[in-house]
Design brief:
The chain has 406 residues and is an alpha/beta fold. It has three domains: 7-54, Nucleic acid-binding proteins (OB fold (Dihydrolipoamide Acetyltransferase, E2P), Beta Barrel); 81-111 and 230-393, Vaccinia Virus protein VP39 (Rossmann fold, 3-Layer(aba) Sandwich); 118-214, no CATH class. It has helices at 76-93, 150-158, 200-204, 232-246, 265-274, 285-294, 331-339, 353-365; strands at residues 7-10, 16-20, 27-35, 39-49, 105-109, 118-123, 129-132, 139-140, 166-171, 178-183, 196-199, 210-215, 218-223, 255-259, 277-282, 300-304, 320-323, 345-350, 368-377, 386-393. An eight-stranded mixed sheet has the order 5-19-20-18-17-14-15-16, sandwiched between helices. Helix 7 links the parallel strand 17 and strand 18 (345-350). Helix 1 crosses helix 8 (353-365) and helix 7 (331-339) packs across helix 8. The protein is globular and about 60 Å long.
Length: 406
Amino acid sequence: MAAGGDAIGRDDDGRVVFVEGGLPGEVLDVEITDERKDFARGRVTAVLEPGPGRTAPPCPNVALGCGGCQWQHIGPVTQLELKAAVVDDALRRIGRFSPEELPAMTTHAVAPTGYRTTLRMAVDRGGRPSYRLRHSHQLLAPAQCMVAHPALEELVVEGRFPGAREVTARVSAATGERLVLVTPRAVEVRVPPDVIVVGANSLKKGRPAFIVERVAGRDWRVSALSFFQSGPAAAEALVGVVDAAVGEALPTGGLVVDTYAGVGLLGGVVAARRAARLVAVESSASSVDDASHNLVDLEARVERASIDHWRPSLGGSPDVVIADPPRAGLGAAAAEVLTGLGASRLILVGCDPASLARDARLITSAGYTLSGVDVVDLFPHTFHIEAVARFDRIVRDATHPVQSSP
């Protein structure tokens, strides 16, 4: 499988074809939709010999062309296996890690239904929240959504937002609070009376709008413009993997630096469980405000900065650094900043296998070894992949120096 979700096959002439809706090991009739000199793209018109893991899509929206869930033709167990294979391939091919350098990979996944508590959707001419059809700007207003939390699904199916271009709906599984952010403005919105409604223009004027979610035994304020995981189940799963990766590297009272910290979730849980000190760094003003609120009971400092240009003042090396960058990854400048902190352990959360692989090579080239990789499926029925990589600093002895990987 390619990282973008398509199966990789070959036509009768041996040319590579990226096949939407395909699986490894299948024989397919494929309609070619895009031809290039070195490759082509196509979609399945008939499955002649199905591969292991193929299943009937459980959601009726797939037959209508909904582009929200691209992997519903694959069973959940096989989805996780394929995602792990994509990460492994990226580390070998893009990161240039040899088999001997790669640690054993572990996998984790959330339940495949009702896991999403936030959705950002387009709005059709009737004011209905809509998904885009596959490879199209046309819209589909769903009559149901199997991946949405029931309280969120109600807003998606029954909410009306006339005149809007886009709506972000967010609910709390813990408190039942519900919020919709309407772009550009909220006019004649029709939702249940408990729902907090705010227009994007109003937020620019400083009007607060947030819900409170509960993860890892702590409450987290999440504002309309702040990033949060796909839902509390995903947040719990990711926190558990990151906390295990930190392990013994962060002692009681130690120092952890959480970069791209969002509302403070990862660093906050890790620090709270060890009574450790925390420095959280985030560039979004909304998330910084939330993190300052969420971490007030800890020995924590929240700084607003872009990691590329962050000038840390820590008074010494931290024990652990956590980084959860956006899809583009760290890049050379941020990787240099983070590895330069001198932490004994660095935890990298990646939502794109290619970016993760490139960043992993940058980190190991700066004196770390890749010591653990966990694949966490936070978006079942889609090709989106989350992975957590653990790096340990190579200790060089003056007499017998240990060389980092080439």
